[in-house]
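Hi everyone,

Forwarding the result from last night's run.
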Amino acid sequence: MKKNLFKGNIFVFVCTLMASIYGQAQTKIFSLFSENFEKPKYFQFQLNSDTIPAKGDNKWIVNKTYNGSGVYPNTTDQNTTMSGQIGNPNEHYLHIHDSKKPGGAANANFDPTNASESWAILPQGICTMSLVDIRFVFFWLAEGSANSFGEVYYSADYGAWTQIGQTKYNNQGIWKFEEIKDVSFENVEDLRFAFRWVNPGGESQNSMSFSIDDVHIIGTYAPNANPVDIIISDIVAEVCKGTTFIFTFEFTDTLCDGSYLIMLSDDTGSFDNPTSYWSFSYPY
């Protein structure tokens, strides 16, 4: 994004995000986060979080078990979806299971007699400064019951967890694509999401629990949305063609962590063939 910043010398502030460079007046959709749970030791969600301790025996797990072992109903095949297509069907996925059930059924199930609450939290926030149209997307299923269901939450800039999306994720026995969009996701330093499961106990009907796969956070880079200016605050030396000068600069707002480039135009103010480059990382 181009800014006129210091007298007759024009500097360009180019933001490098996700290993791509977005120049002046470009609008581009790109991925901010992706998790398909195919690396079980390194997945990015914190399960049964210590931040909000799990209650009861129905807890989150990641595996590729779809068979209920005759103890619970089998989990629906991931080739069966209401819309869209799961990237790696019938491989690893995130789901609630009965952690104490004899026989070790570890597919998407829960003990309806055991009251439980458990969270799967994204502990590392996503920066969305100067981004718009932020969407949290995933595939899910959850039969549950009227009182046993999943929920989705978000936290912006370390604020309280706020429920978003459907009031209850239940009554869904086939994998379904979900997209959640809200202006509260935009232009924040730290955006996090969480999945919550809750059931009251005292029920008897076995059914499939809350299950998640192919999680993505997608945003649109728009240079005119919440722009950040770079201001030249001091120049130590006279600015003349062919000479070296030192300058200090500051920003008008917080930036996302990343690599940044400052470019010096030619003497006509054109950036087709910039005369100099300065690169730096933020934070320093």
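DSSP finds no helices and 18 strands in the chain.

Cheers,
N.
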